[in-house]
Amino acid sequence: MIAPDLRSGVEQLGDMIAEASTIIPFTGAGISTESGIPDFRSPGGLWSRNRPIPFDEFVASLEARNEAWRRRFAMEPTFAAARPGRGHRALASLYKAGKIPAIVTQNIDNLHQMSGFAADDVVELHGNTTYARCIGCGRAYDMAWVKRSFETTGGAPDCSACDEPVKTATISFGQAMPEDAMRRATELAQQCDLFLAIGSSLVVWPAAGFPMLAKNCGARLVIINNEPTEQDDIADLVIRHDIGETLGPFVGN
Ligand code: NAD
Fold first, then answer.
1. What is the pTM of this model?
2. Average pLDDT of the residues of the chain
3. Is 39 in the pocket of ligand 1 (CB under 6 A)?
């Protein structure tokens, strides 16, 4: 059911939150636009400017790796300046209050951790872009190391331990999903009684399967997004408004 206006949407959401014992939020890029990070699919979003580089292309081509890193460096001021918005802070308040045991996110921006979630309680389906990893041995590198290496050699860095390419710690199209995160997200979706899909176009699979899974396992499903999604039909409540406006009233002290 679509909330007729923002006020009644917030009221119904408040009732559902009060009635729930275990809430699992599932967030997408839309929760971070208020923090200044563009999403993928909105006009002006990242995809209107750059075609994504699939994983096999990254592995096969040094030119693709150089381009991927140039794009990442170009985004650095944006990621470095981003601070949690009202959506992040509202969820962090519910986490502190014990209503939310963990959060499942498609986002790679680290803002849920910055808002107060323990890193172990943030299930990152698509990884994290605030650091890098070797795609061979998994060794982690910080951005300053990558930047220095790029500037010294003029190109994308390889691992100093095993010589395989170093990539942001994110999951690209064509790259295997992280098994542990997928298992945890599945369990959380199955065990909650309220599932909140926030700021996701729900078109990237397999991540987009979690709202449906939660609903099929008996949870109430709320979708908060400023444009329609394909799963609106199965949701108990759809709030088609701005996320900051919708979740602002749930930010605690
Ligand atoms: P998406 O871009 O496909 O969808 C975002 C949705 O949020 C859109 O439907 C848009 O209309 C809506 N939205 C944007 N701002 C909003 C606001 N203020 N209020 C309400 N709705 C708003 O993003 P997605 O579904 O997360 O999937 C795409 C992939 O994008 C994910 O894999 C994610 O890793 C990646 N991504 C992440 C970030 C980030 O970490 N912040 C940014 C861009 C892309």
1. 0.95
2. 95
3. yes
